[in-house]
Amino acid sequence: MKICVVGTGYVGLVGAAIFSDWGNPVIGVDKDENKIGRIKAGEMPIYEPGLSEIVLKNIKEGSLSFTTSLAEGVKESEVVFICVGTPQSESGAADLSAVWSVAKEIAQNMNGYKVIVIKSTVPVGTNERVKKIIQENLSGNCDFDVASNPEFLREGCSVEDMRNPDRNVIGSDSPKALSILRSLYEHLGKPIVECDLRSAEMIKYASNAFLATKITFVNEMAQVCERAGADISVVSKGMGLDRRIGHYFLNAGIGYGGSCFPKDVAALYKTSSDQDYDFNLVRGVMNVNKSQKEYFLQKVFRYYGKNLSNKRFAVLGLAFKNDTDDIRESVAIEIVKYLRGAGALLSVYDPQAMYNSKQILGDNGIKYCLDKYETLEGSDALFILTEWKEFASLDLEKVKLTLREPVIFDGRNLLDWRKVESLGFTYFAVGKRTNGVEKIERKDVYSTAILKNENNHH
Ligand code: UDX
Ligand code: UDX
């Protein structure tokens, strides 16, 4: 099956690579000349484990090519996947301008029957509108169908997710389009959900919002655990063993980020409001997620006071999650900005996201370190903000020797609190009554007593 993939970002590039690896001739199209130039030269514009090998192999074998010409890609293919970005607009809704313009250009370049498949995450009704745009702009008298085929790829393991999906969802009102897409995926032997366009579009939002809710539930449980003296890591483990709950996405932290969850949850809320329905639970998820990082920062301010101008902090992790160089909507970056705003100097390190972070954060007040241990030199505390595996195996003796003070703020519960505390660290995590929490509570009781005393004197 001859395939064209429009948009070679995190989703499109992985899609194009794997489709070609399955034996289909694929043309990847992107309007970004620099990106296409780099890919053609064998250099991946993003970090994604395993991707580079597959792209290079299939370029070499001639089944995968790249161009900036959408016309060329469309003319050569029977199936055209739209994988352009759908970022969040001011109103919270998805910005679909790229989808509309690509749809129009596809229509103007049609030269025979094609299935136009939208893979980008788009709100209910988008596929129908794309169908209309294509009809209105068709060159000649070509037949075509529109289909929705949402992606469920997690950055950092999207190659594996695409090869071994839990399911594929294909929505269309055309049996011919459904049959073509079925033949693309059925060799995987995984469930294929065939449905109408609107349900397919909604499955994507419902899934992402549900997963964001799962994380948020655990983040809120963490608040209760910390106050009640329970340990959220143990509670999550105990919950996750129930197969109805499952152990995925039960890690408490600093709140979810990334290019998908925040925008998709907001877009689902907007969709429901547009249908005159106030989706209370989803509104709550958005609010709790915002306060999750504030709650983490509060501990820092309760420990040090509001002014951090005489502090330097070591920061491990800038990407929005592990195994990616992506910093879009990264809570780690937001926390770094906040700490810098309060006067702190920062020594930062991330295994993959240094270049992207530098573009956003600049040099002011930030030292970019070459490895995780360099961040510790001259630092008053260590912050762990992204769940990279290599941070869990830090040499804690070395950390203690290098830091000016043995203090750790672990935003991802990566370390074992017993071990950390037994080494003499003051330790803050999420959803556990660690010795750091006890210290700030004693401090708060003390300052309340002073305040009371002063008031009595007046
Ligand atoms: C995007 C969407 O944001 C997401 O909602 C959806 O589920 C999958 O597609 P991602 O692949 O991460 O996610 O986006 P991004 O990395 O920004 O890549 C989009 C690519 O499309 C960029 O390379 C951009 O240059 C390209 N593009 C955009 C075009 O080729 N033409 C356009 O008109 C607009
Ligand atoms: C997500 C969806 O998982 C994927 O199916 C969809 O297609 C795109 O959006 P992605 O954004 O790549 O994928 O990352 P994901 O692994 O879902 O993590 C999202 C955020 O949640 C990250 O900030 C991560 O750190 C956070 N998270 C995840 C937690 O805080 N706790 C968890 O238990 C899991």
Q: Care to describe what's here?
A:
The chain has about 450 residues and is an alpha/beta fold. It folds into 2 domains: about 5-195, Rossmann fold (3-Layer(aba) Sandwich); about 230-458, Rossmann fold (3-Layer(aba) Sandwich), CATH 3.40.50. It has 18 helices and 14 strands. The chain has helices at about 10-20, 35-40, 50-60, 70-75, 95-110, 125-135, 160-165, 175-185, 195-230, 230-240, 260-275, 280-305, 330-340, 355-360, 390, 395-400, 415-420, 435-455, and strands at about 5, 25-30, 65, 80, 115-120, 145-150, 170, 190-195, 310-315, 345-350, 365-370, 380-385, 405-410, 425-430. It has a 6-stranded parallel beta sheet with strand order 3-2-1-4-5-6, with helices on both faces. Strands 11-10-9-12-13-14 form a 6-stranded parallel beta sheet. It has a two-stranded parallel sheet with strand order 7-8. The protein starts with a strand and ends with a helix. One uridine-5'-diphosphate-xylopyranose binds near residues 86 and 151.
